Amino acid sequence: MPNLGVPELLIIACVLVLLFGAKKLPEMARGVGKSLRIFKAETTKLREDDDDAGVAQATVQAQPQPQAQPVQPLPAAAPALSPEEQARQLEEQAAKLRAQAAANKNA
């Protein structure tokens, strides 16, 4: 990867100012900063979750295993729904909940 010197950085800055305008650049920088903060927070949470999972797994392995019980067959499950059908069902449930909330407000 080539090294970027001062002249190259100035040219890049000028192109950015010409493309986006001087007023938009601070807003873009704030947006990038917020995005980086959110990204760092989420990666930190993932690392903590991984650490917690490792501790929990070690605890589970240390406990004696109960004897296996016979598994009862599950009742026949409904066929898997497509994402569109799931979304439609969720929208219907949301509409019912909104109607109930509106009825409770009016009562």
From TrEMBL:
Membrane topology (UniProt): Single-pass membrane protein
Family: Belongs to the TatA/E family.
InterPro entries per record: TatA/B/E (IPR003369), TatA/E (IPR006312)
Localization (cell): Cell membrane
Domain of life: Bacteria
Positions with biased composition (Low complexity): 56-84, 96-107
Location of the region described as Disordered in the Swiss-Prot/TrEMBL record: 47-107
The entry's keywords: Cell membrane, Membrane, Protein transport, Translocation, Transmembrane, Transmembrane helix, Transport
Subunit structure, interactors included: The Tat system comprises two distinct complexes: a TatABC complex, containing multiple copies of TatA, TatB and TatC subunits, and a separate TatA complex, containing only TatA subunits. Substrates initially bind to the TatABC complex, which probably triggers association of the separate TatA complex to form the active translocon.
Protein name in UniProt: Sec-independent protein translocase protein TatA
Position of the signal peptide: none
Function: Part of the twin-arginine translocation (Tat) system that transports large folded proteins containing a characteristic twin-arginine motif in their signal peptide across membranes. TatA could form the protein-conducting channel of the Tat system.
Positions with biased composition (Basic and acidic residues): 85-95
